[in-house]
Structure formats: C-alpha cells, structure tokens
Design a protein that fits this description.
heterodimer, A: alpha/beta, Rossmann fold, CBS-domain, six-stranded mixed β-sheet, four-stranded antiparallel β-sheet, 15 helices, 24% strand, B: mainly alpha, MetI-like fold, disordered C terminus
C-alpha cells in the first residue's frame, strides 16, 4: 500500500493576533515529497501554530502554504483536513467509539463502501502492530497509552493521506514506549512514503526522525537543515545551545559504522600454517583470525604464538563485533566500555568486513566541533 | 386523623383499586409530558447557548427565576389565564425542569475533553458532525444525570397540581387531607415515591445501554453529576 507523498511549501507565512502578538514571522521552507520534517523549538515558539496552518486549524494572516502546489487557503477546511492525516499528543480518540470505528473515521466520512473500510482497518491495525481480532472491538479506555497512540496513528493513516501533520505524537508515553513507537513509525513511513510534518520539543527526537529539521523560536525560523548539518553547523548560539553540548555525540548517532571508511587489517584463517602468514609489514604484530566461514575469532599476536597452525584458542576476543547498522555513537560507547581501541565490523552473517578504530570515531566527533 | 383508626385500611384500598390505577396513570402521564416537553425546550435552548455563548446568562437567569417561584404561587398565578387545566399544570411542571436539564446538557457538552473535539476538527468533521456524533453522545452520562433529577423532582411536584384539579396521585393525597382519612394520603404518597424510584432505575438502565463505552472501563472524566446538582 505505498502512497505518494505531497510537497509542502511555506511561503512567507506570518500569523499575527489582534492586539499585535506575533505567533509566526515570515516562515519560508520547503519539505520535499515523502520526507519527514520535524518542527522543533522551545514551547510557545510557534511550532504548533505553524503546523496548524497546514490543515487550517489556524489561518495565517499573510503568506501561503502550498501542498502539492495548491494553496491551502483555496481549499474548504473540512475537505482539506480529510486529506491530511492528523495526530495529536493526547491522541484524542473518540471514547464512545470502538478501535475499529475510530480508525474508520475519515473513510466513513468520505463515503468508502463498508467492505473496503473493514479491510482497511484490518490492514492498518496490522501495520501499527495491533492484532485486529483482539483490538477491533475495544473501547479506547480499555487500551494502554502506547496502544492508544498506535490507534491514533492508524486513524490518521486511514484514508491514505499523502501528508500527515502530527503534534508531539510520541510525547505522552514513557521513554521506552516512545522509542519503540518512533522506530515503528519510521518503519511505517518507509513502507508508505507519505510526507510528514511533526512538532516536537525534543531535539533528539527531531534528529532521529526528521530528514529535515526546522528550528523555530519566537515565531522565527532560525534554521532549516538536515540533522547532520544542524549538528555540524548550527546557525547561531541559540541553535548550538538548543542542540546541546553533546552535539558531537548526537552527530555520531546519525552515522552507521557500515557507512564509515573501514580499516582493513591483515587476516588469517583457522588452520593456516603460522609460517606462511609472516609478520605484517607495518610492524604491528597483530592479525585478525577468522574461522572457516570468515567470522572473526579475535586477535593473534604472531610474535607470541608457538609453531604449527592458527587455532581458535590463540585468539583474543576482546574487540567487540559491530553490525553494519550499529550507530557510531553506540560503537564509541562499546569501545570505551570494553577499554579497547578497535572493534570489528561484520555483515549479516557475522563475517568480517573491516575494523573501526577509536581514533576514527573521535575524528568524527571533532568534525562537529569545528 | 381520627383516633383509633388504623393508618391504612386495606379494604378501602381494595375497593378503590381501579381509581388508584387511574390516578397512577394520570400521574405518569403528567410527569412524562412535563419531562419530555421540558427536555425538548431545554435541548433547543442548550443548542442556542452552545452556539451563541452570549445567550447563556439570559437563559440561566430565566430558567433560574422560574425554578425559584414557589409552585403553589405559580399555579395560582396561571389559573386566571389558562384555567384549571392540564395546560396550567404542565406549564408549571415544564418550567421547573428547564434549569436542571439545560445546565446538564450545556455542561455535558462543554465537559467533552478538548483533545477529542480538536482531533475531530482536525480530521475534517463538520461542526454539526462534531456536535451530533461526538459531543452529544459523550455528554450522555451528564445529560441522563440531569434527566434523572428532573424526573424525580417532577414526579413529586405533580402531586401539587391536584390543587388545580389535576394531580394524579396528588388527588388521593388531597382527598385524605380533606376527609381526615389517612389511607388515601399514604397510598398516594407511597405510590408517588415508588414511581420516582422506578423511573430513576429505568433511566439508569437506559443510560447503561446507551453508553456501553463506560462499562468496565475506568470512569470517564466527565461522567457523574456536574457540580451544583
């Protein structure tokens, strides 16, 4: 059920209230089709107002918002909203409707046939990880916070909207559930490909979820950048403080070790004769011993082993193994915890790919500091 | 009452069974019409108040004033215009239900959690759809709470209308007072109380049927009596 994403363009959007209070001041940015864009900033800064301008819960006083090239002000609010998925922090499920009725809200409003709605509800509950048979007929009061949030996401996705706007969608659950919901949402987004605008006050969530991050403070767009750029080159002191003193570490969290340039080290196989291996040219006596399948056993100091052949028992397994998808931050932490300078990166079958060294990770950290 | 006379003479009850049944029927009719008409009026006024907030003060003042007029005086004041008729009785009875019903309908709708109506709006429900499909159903427990109070009050108040020639069971009570005869008085009063209890129970059952989502779940924040009732 992949969907198409809509482009969203903010053009000089401002919102002034009677009495002169300025909620938004000349916001301009563009979200490409299918991207997730996080609106982040301190509370009261205008990010929620900006989000609500998209589905016209708030109308801007000047400027335009174009969704797929069409000015939202030219669309009647009720039909505009039916085409945009909407999720809020408190979820706002209808307490008097079952899970099925809640998810079916928009399809029923726009008049889908009943059979299609039933199929769609089943599909969506599966998608958000709720067993349709068990959950379909429950009322919201019979769900946990995380389950409610999942139903809220399913409800917003029901009519296959090319655009979703979400206001602190993962804010009301505990940190463990939040992280799981974030991961599930990213997985859903991968499958469906809709464009997503979401508000958060949590910079880590913005960096994790967003392909684009809009930092909004005092009604101004302070910076609009990819998470990596935001961490590498914060636009001013405010953004630098907002992303945090640990932005170097946050930067590492965006990089998978498999995407780094891995070091190659001399390797030997179990059962190979010692004599043939020789001493590595650069003077480092250590070689990496691999088993028959190419899986690393550990390091062997060729100067300290007796004759014969390489065996698993000789290997020092103290270097941690990292999957390609391991975040550089987790790799750094893994090395520091073990007190070693290198980790071995392996593929999905645990076969040796290369080595990542503490120095490589630290030099990445340094790039963000510049 | 006459000394030596028993409080209830069952032979009188037995010989007047048909009349008692008729009076019960009249009583139910008077009360049901009053609560029904009162609800319709209160509902329409509530919709106006919910739509145009400025009307609330006027509506509360009017219904509140009606509520404070002593029932006896109200009926006496109406008789020159509407006579000793059922209309006179109903005008009074309906008047007393309005304040309670309106407060509970308006309060019930306003008590619907803001995030629920916000989500409804954000998903593209129209104003009317939000009112009829979301707010009013969710206000049901509070509305029914108001109906219960209005019904109980009205059933008690119907007896007073015996003074203007109506009154259902009130007729029996009045008869007992006039004849210095305790049996019809006690029968009338006891049946009036029994009717009130039965009507209240029926409304509780009806509410449980109408609001299945409140069953087995933790109480919704807006369930129960609003303050002041």
């Amino acid at each position: 059920m992949p969907q198409r994403g809509a482009t969203v363009v903010f053009e000089n959007v401002s919102k002034r209230y009677e009495g002169g209070a300025v909620a938004l001041d000349d916001l301009s940015f563009e979200v490409p089709a299918g991207a997730i864009c996080a609106l982040v900033g301190p509370s009261g800064g205008g990010k929620t107002t900006a989000l609500k301008c998209v589905n016209r819960l708030v109308d801007p006083t000047s400027g335009r918002i174009l969704v797929d090239g069409r000015d939202v002000m030219s669309v009647e609010p009720v039909s505009l909203r039916r085409g945009i998925g909407y999720v809020i922090q408190q979820v706002g499920l209808f307490p008097h409707w079952t899970v099925e009725q809640n998810v079916a809200t928009v399809p029923a409003l726009v008049g889908w046939p009943e059979a299609r709605i039933r199929d769609r509800v089943r599909e969506l509950l599966d998608l958000v990880g709720l067993d349709p048979v068990r959950y379909r007929d429950r009322y919201p009061a019979q769900l946990s916070g995380g389950e409610r949030q999942r139903v809220g996401v399913a409800r917003a996705l029901a009519a296959e909207p090319p655009l979703m706007v979400m206001d602190e969608p993962f804010g009301a659950v505990d940190p463990i559930v939040r992280e799981r919901l974030q991961d599930e949402f990213l997985r859903i987004h991968d499958r469906l490909g809709m464009t997503v605008l979401f508000v958060t006050h949590d910079i880590d969530e913005a960096i994790k979820m967003g392909a684009w991050v809009a930092v909004i403070q005092g009604g101004h767009l302070v910076q609009y950048a990819s998470p990596a750029d935001l961490l590498d080159r914060p636009a001013n002191d405010f953004v630098a403080r907002f992303v945090g003193a640990d932005r170097g570490l946050k930067r590492l969290a965006l990089i998978a070790v498999g995407d780094m340039e891995l070091r190659k080290v001399p390797t030997v196989r179990e059962g190979e004769p010692l004599a043939g291996s020789g001493r590595p040219a650069d003077g480092d006596p250590y070689v990496l011993l691999l088993d028959a399948q190419g899986r690393p056993d550990g390091w062997v100091n060729v100067e300290r082993v007796p004759g014969g052949t390489f065996t698993k028992g000789m290997a020092d397994p103290s270097s941690p193994l990292f999957a390609r998808t391991t975040r550089a931050r987790d790799a750094l932490s893994g090395l520091l915890v073990r007190g070693v300078r290198t980790g071995v990166v392996v593929d999905d079958e645990d076969r040796y790919l290369g080595v990542v060294a503490l120095d490589d990770l630290i030099s990445l950290l340094g790039r963000a500091r510049a | 009452m006459t000394p030596g006379e028993p409080l209830i003479r069952w032979d009188w009850v037995a010989s007047h069974a048909t009349e008692i049944a008729t009076r019960v029927g009249e009583h139910v009719e008077l009360a049901a019409i009053a609560v029904f008409v009162g609800f319709v009026i209160a509902f329409l006024v509530s919709l106006l108040v919910l739509r145009f907030g400025r009307l609330e003060q006027a509506a509360t003042f009017l219904t509140g004033t009606l509520y404070t007029i002593p029932s006896l005086a109200l009926f006496a004041l109406l008789v020159p215009y509407t006579g000793l008729t059922i209309l006179t009785a109903e005008i009074g009875l309906v008047g007393y239900t309005l304040l309670i019903l309106m407060r509970n309908i308006v309060g019930g709708v306003r008590g619907v959690p803001a995030e629920v109506t916000e989500a409804a709006r954000g998903m593209g429900l129209t104003r009317a759809q939000i009112l009829w499909r979301v707010e009013l159903p969710l206000a049901l427990p509070v509305i029914v709470a108001g109906l219960r109070i209005a019904t109980i009050t009205t059933i008690g108040l119907v007896t007073v209308t015996a003074l203007i020639g109506q009154g259902g069971l009130g007729y029996l009570i009045l008869l007992g007072i006039q004849l210095f005869f305790s049996t019809p008085l006690i029968v009338g009063a006891a049946l009036s109380v029994a009717l009130a209890v039965a009507a209240d129970g029926a409304l509780v059952l009806a509410q449980r049927k109408l609001t299945p989502w409140t069953k087995g779940a933790r109480a919704l924040p807006h369930a129960g009596l609003p303050p002041g009732t």
